[in-house]
Amino acid sequence: MKTNYNIVYNKYNNSTIDVLSINGKDWKTIIKNQNLEFKINLKNTNRKIIKKIIKNIEKITTKIRKKGETNKKITFYIINYNQNNQNHSDFIKAIEVVFIEKVEDRYNYIYDEVCSFLDNEFTNKKLCEFKDNKCGEKLKTSSEVGCCRHYKNKILGPLNLNGKLVICEYLKDKKCSAKCISCKLYTCDYLKNKGIQFKIKNILLLDIFFNPIQKYIIKYSVFTPKEIIIKKLLKKSIKS
Ligand code: SF4
Ligand code: SF4
């Protein structure tokens, strides 16, 4: 059964417990309450602090689930929240992830959220600068499909430089039908020279919910459909 929670922005009362201040011996007493109210201050937070907050929220939900008390009322009062701050909205999504019990559902949620973010970045900002079907990087080549090409021998991939360069089989009507997160994260030299690069460590949901092996899978599984990537991630889901 799913544990429910509410989020209240930029308000709190003095009896609210700061999530960051909770330590080992406080848990027993806190969890006894039917109404659980927590304060989270996003002012001056860095990745380390955000990780600690999420870890503590994860502890709260795990303890509640273990006791089977999913009818508790949990409220997070988030102060200094700025809806225009990408880090803040990513943090809210991280709370959502913690409350998704099934690992496969979690991974699907994270995967879809990150793909939407990357799609928006590439589309809205027109990062690849396509003109007459040619992107910035491939302007002087024959490619009219950007970097959606690979060498025919997929086992050797880019190492098989003598192979035949073919259009990726997942490219349908000029769109990726595979929803491949690794391809979406890829930035060529053209983009890097413009200062554009998407690193896993900079994307909160990928950074905090996946271990190093899973991050490797996310980075390097290019030309691969979502279903296969999710399966690979599930196989390596033991926390590092
Ligand atoms: S990532 Fe680079 S090579 Fe790929 S489509 Fe964009 S500009 Fe072209
Ligand atoms: S899997 Fe990668 S290379 Fe193939 S169509 Fe999708 S984005 Fe392009």
What does this structure look like?
By secondary structure, this protein is an alpha/beta fold. It folds into 2 domains: 97 residues, no CATH class; 131 residues, no CATH class. 40% of the residues lie in helices and 13% in strands. One iron/sulfur cluster (SF4) binds next to helix 6.
Major sheet size, sense and barrel closure: 4 strands, parallel
Number of domains: 2
Percentage of residues in strands = 5-15%
Distance between the termini: 27 Å
Unreliable stretches (pLDDT < 50, length at least 5) are none
Key attributes of the depicted protein:
binds iron/sulfur cluster, alpha/beta, 240 residues
Summarize the structure.
This protein is α/β, with parallel strands linked by helices and 240 residues long. Helix content is 40%, strand content 13%.
Q: How are the secondary structure elements laid out?
A:
Blueprint: E1 5-9, E2 17-18, H1 27-32, E3 35-41, H2 47-67, E4 73-79, H3 86-98, H4 103-124, E5 149-151, E6 165-167, E7 171-172, E8 175-176, H5 181-185, H6 189-193, H7 204-209, H8 212-220, H9 226-235
Parallel strand pairs: 1-4, 2-3, 3-4
Antiparallel strand pairs: 5-6, 7-8
Helix pairs in contact: 2-3, 4-9
This protein binds iron/sulfur cluster (2 copies).
